[in-house]
Structure formats: structure tokens, C-alpha cells
Write a structure and sequence with these properties.
The protein is α+β, with helices and mostly antiparallel strands. It has one domain: RutC-like (60s Ribosomal Protein L30, Chain: A, 2-Layer Sandwich). Helices cover 22% and strands 35% of the residues. The chain has five helices and 20 strands. The protein has a six-stranded mixed β-sheet, with helices on one face. Helix 2 runs parallel beside helix 3 and helix 4 packs parallel to helix 5. The longest helix has 18 residues. It is globular. 48% of the residues are buried.
């Protein structure tokens, strides 16, 4: 089940089907992201160097609108909007003498300038990818340095760090390349959702770095006549602690339980009527068959999922799952 021309939504496509899909949605494509092997695709995707598992080689993520879209640009950032929501991206190469912390501050300063300039002030969902996510940089894990830089930009922009102000988000390790970020922002704010089994990420103790990650567990909004729940990267974490270190099967079960509990916070959630799309990140490619079988058992064969080989933001996490749930808002 994929969203047609009358719907706001998301599709994960193989390279062979991406061309036709993009042609069918011509004039209504908000954004395109490519994973895996680079290839010629319409709309010039944002490319992320993360291998696609399952023999596909390339996966294309396409966000479409129910309304005509127009291009947007400002201070080097580019994107598109449909009058209610915008999609945009940026890539920043890390040069000699720069830290990821510095790059994160620069990126988020640009993002806030972009969405404020175009009057889409509400960040709904942000995706971050950068290499060596668990490596040390100046005595601090790169992901933790990234969190400091993001926090600096939030404070400098005057945005609060709490339930009313933070987007859904994820941060994964790429094999190479720049700090690559893409995001969705809205004219109207969404509603943040939290998981009662977990401490809100922006309230993590300093055990996880000088500054906490800034994201909600999920963000809900009504877009294009559909209720959408954008689920952040979710893993085997209860409270703020990683569970089942070294056991991918138990981590997969715990991750899926966290997603199940999170979806139960949605007033409109109906597993039988809505549509779920997932991105599943695996630290070890050999866990693919096991994790895929658990995902299919949880969500059914109709669930659209792409599996990627990536390092996770915590070195003791073996997998992470993000999602987007759609149901007719009526």
C-alpha cells in the first residue's frame, strides 16, 4: 500500500520503481533521499552512504504532498513546500580544524534561519547522518559532540528545549561523507508524543554526555487530510538505559515493544486501518533475517520497510527502528 497522488505521504522504493513513481507524482514531490549505491534518479536526491540490506543495493525514500509544491531556497539550503509543510536538506563537509560540534551548530543555525525565513517555524521531524558516529573526537564521542552543537543552536535561536519545542529525530552513522541532514517543518506545530517506559531524551542525565539529545519520541500532525505520526529512532532503551547488551534478538523485541507502546499513545491509532512505513538500521548485517521476521510478525507483510546497515548512536545498541504511521484524518 503506497500513498497515491491525493495523499501526503512516504514511499520506500527500489531503483527500478522510483522513476515511474516520481513521474506519477510530478509536481507533488517534496523530497527524495537515496541510500546505498548512487544512481541517476529524478529530483536529485540527497544521498546517504549507508548500505541497503536485502540485495537491493539502492533504496529511494520519497516524500509527496496532496498539493502542488514549489521550490524554496535560502542561504544555501534548498527544499520544497506545499503551503503547509516544507521538506529541505543540507550537507556540510567537515574540514580540517572543525569538530562535529561546530558543524552541528552551523547546521542547526542554518535550519532555524531557513524555516523562520519561509514562515514554517515548527520543526516536525529531522534526520541526521554522519560518519564515525561512535568514534572519539577531542576526548568525546562524536555523537555527544553533535548533541552539544545542536543544543547551542537551539538556545541561540531562542527555542525552548521541552515537549512543546523539540521535533522527532534520529541520528545514524554513515560509511562516509558529510554531515547530512534533512527535515520536515510545518506552518502549524505538531504534538509531541512520549513513551511512558522511557525518560524523555532531552532529560537524559549527563551520563550520556554534557548535553542531552534533543528530540521527542514521536511527532504527530494532520497533513494533507491524513493523521501522521512520525516516530523517532527507537531502540532497546527503558528509562534511559540500554537493555540486553550484546543480544540482538532481545534488543529487537524490546525495540518493537517500545514502538507498540508509543503507538498506543496515538488517539487515532488503528493497526488494521492505518499504514506503517519503517526504516530499520542494523549494526550487524547478519541480524537481518531475524529482525525482519520480528518486524513482519509485529506489523504484518503490508508494512513497508527498508533495512540499512548502520552504526547506532549508542555503541551498545545493535539496532534502531524509525517509522511513519498514516491514517485518514476523517
Amino acid at each position: 500500500m503506497r500513498n497515491d497522488n491525493k495523499q501526503f505521504g512516504l514511499a520506500y522504493l527500489g531503483l527500478s520503481e522510483a522513476g515511474d513513481y516520481l513521474a506519477q507524482h510530478d509536481g507533488r514531490v517534496l523530497g527524495v533521499v537515496g541510500f546505498g549505491h548512487r544512481a541517476t534518479v529524478a529530483h536529485t536526491p540527497v544521498w546517504v552512504d549507508i548500505p541497503v540490506l536485502g540485495g537491493l543495493g539502492t533504496s529511494v525514500e520519497v516524500w509527496t504532498s496532496n498539493a502542488p509544491v514549489e521550490p524554496l531556497a535560502y542561504q544555501g539550503l534548498v527544499g520544497a513546500s506545499d503551503g503547509n509543510v516544507l521538506f529541505a536538506s543540507l550537507s556540510l563537509e567537515q574540514r580540517a580544524g572543525e569538530t562535529l560540534e561546530m558543524l552541528a551548530t552551523q547546521a542547526y543555525t542554518g535550519i532555524f534561519d531557513f524555516i523562520d525565513h519561509h514562515d514554517y517555524p515548527n520543526l516536525l521531524r529531522v534526520w541526521h547522518y554522519f560518519p564515525k558516529i561512535n568514534d572519539d573526537e577531542n576526548g568525546l564521542e562524536r555523537y555527544r559532540g553533535f548533541n552539544i552543537g545542536r543544543h547551542t543552536a537551539f538556545v541561540a535561536s531562542g527555542r525552548g528545549i521541552g515537549a512543546e519545542n523539540v521535533p522527532a529525530a534520529s541520528a545514524l552513522g554513515s560509511d562516509s561523507g558529510a554531515l547530512t541532514i534533512y527535515f520536515i517543518a510545518g506552518k502549524q506545530p505538531g504534538k509531541a508524543l512520549e513513551n511512558p517506559r522511557q525518560i524523555s531524551a532531552y532529560r537524559y542525565p549527563k551520563l550520556f554526555g554534557p548535553r542531552s539529545p534533543i528530540f521527542a519520541r514521536a511527532m504527530s500532525a494532520t497533513l494533507g487530510g491524513q493523521y501522521c505520526c512520525l516516530v523517532s529512532g527507537t531502540a532497546s532503551i527503558v528509562g534511559y538505559e540500554t537493555l540486553h547488551r550484546g543480544d540482538a534478538e532481545k534488543q529487537a523485541a524490546e525495540t518493537l515493544l517500545n514502538i507498540r507502546i508509543l503507538l498506543q499513545q496515538i488517539p487515532h491509532y488503528n493497526a488494521a486501518q492505518g499504514h506503517m512505513s519503517l526504516k530499520v538500521y542494523l549494526r550487524h548485517a547478519g541480524d537481518l533475517d531475524m529482525v525482519r521476521s520480528k518486524v513482519q510478525a509485529e506489523f504484518g507483510m503490508a508494512c513497508e520497510a527498508v533495512y540499512l546497515h548502520s552504526n547506532i548512536c549508542r555503541s551498545d545498541l545493535l539496532l534502531e527502528i524509525e517509522g511513519a504511521y498514516f491514517i485518514d484524518a476523517r
